[in-house]
Design a protein that fits this description.
The protein is α/β, with parallel strands linked by helices. The protein is built from eight helices and twelve strands.
């Protein structure tokens, strides 16, 4: 009898731990996809193979004739879904306001959306995000691209197929060529499952073999690497496995990466390790005050946080 009671107690403990983990991973969500957080519905290796196939067929973005000093915009965690009251390009559309700010900045050349584009609810959130990104010649001075990467929420409720349908890849590079003959490299990565995976890590190493061809190198991925002053969770969707984290940071340092931009925790956080700056890019989520990062690329790479103006 005592053994049975002990087994029941252990099962209850396991359930409590699982439920707590689900709550941590879905902070700010309207619904829970508990199974989707425990069992990977979408495999990293399979996704990366799809991303690289797309890249090989279509090429990767190159932006030319850019001034030697320019800026890019970065934010994350818009969390759009069918359950919010956002009308694309309407008064409450935070993503549209953010992209409009970038497209009206004469020094800016593109924007980034660093994961968790959607919250849950299938295709509806992706439709809103795509509509918010469309060029509006009435309010926007130029049609700069917005480059996304995939986050953990973009996988929940079997949504990876919709990210692929609308945005095609989350493992790619953006190259900026300036009028003075400089080249800058931006490397975008898929960390939606809390890992980069074998093939993507190999691809990242291959890109960094050519680091000396570029003036600056910036790496972009959703999942933050460090414990934060706000959220101390170590759940799989929050951090890379420790050995993978150390290997990634060593790779960044050895290849003189200037800046790593990340998101996930909906806050401002900055670290420096091994000569590399790691910056959490803040968020566009409605909880709190939406903001973004303006990264200036010139002789050096610098950045400033800006509050999003919703007027």
């Amino acid at each position: 009898m005592e053994t049975l009671k002990l087994n029941i107690m252990k099962k209850q403990q396991h359930f409590i731990i699982l439920a707590a983990a689900a709550m941590i991973l879905t902070t700010g969500c309207n619904r829970l996809d508990i199974l989707g957080m425990v069992v990977n519905r979408s495999d990293t290796e399979e996704r990366v193979a799809d991303w690289l196939d797309y890249d090989n067929l279509n090429g990767m973005p190159v932006i030319e004739n850019v001034p030697d000093e320019y800026c890019i915009y970065s934010t994350s965690d818009s969390h759009y879904s069918e359950y919010d009251d956002i009308v694309p390009q309407g008064e409450k559309d935070r993503l549209y306001k953010y992209i409009t700010a970038e497209r009206n900045d004469p020094k800016a050349v593109f924007s980034l959306l660093v994961g968790d584009l959607v919250n849950q609810g299938g295709e509806a959130g992706y439709k809103k995000v795509e509509a918010s990104m469309r060029f509006n010649d009435m309010t926007q001075a130029k049609n700069d691209p917005c480059f996304p990467v995939l986050g953990n929420h973009d996988l929940y409720f079997d949504c990876a197929k919709f990210y692929k349908q609308y945005f095609h890849t989350s493992t790619y590079t953006v190259t900026v060529k300036t009028v003075g003959g400089f080249q800058d490299l931006f490397i975008l990565l898929d960390s939606g499952n809390g890992t980069f995976g074998r093939r993507q890590t190999q691809w990242l190493e291959e890109q960094l073999e050519h680091r000396d061809d570029y003036r600056h190198c910036v790496v972009i991925s959703h999942n933050w690497l460090f414990r934060t002053s706000y959220n101390y969770t170590t759940t799989p969707a929050a951090h890379l496995p420790q050995d993978e984290q150390y290997a990634f940071m060593d790779l960044m340092s050895r290849n003189n990466v200037d800046l790593v931009l990340m998101g996930h925790f909906h806050m401002r956080e900055q670290r420096q390790f091994g000569g590399v700056k790691y910056v959490m890019t803040d968020n566009l989520n409605d909880g709190g005050k939406p903001s973004y990062l303006v990264v200036t690329v010139g002789e050096k790479v610098t950045y400033d946080y800006e509050d999003l103006v919703m007027e």
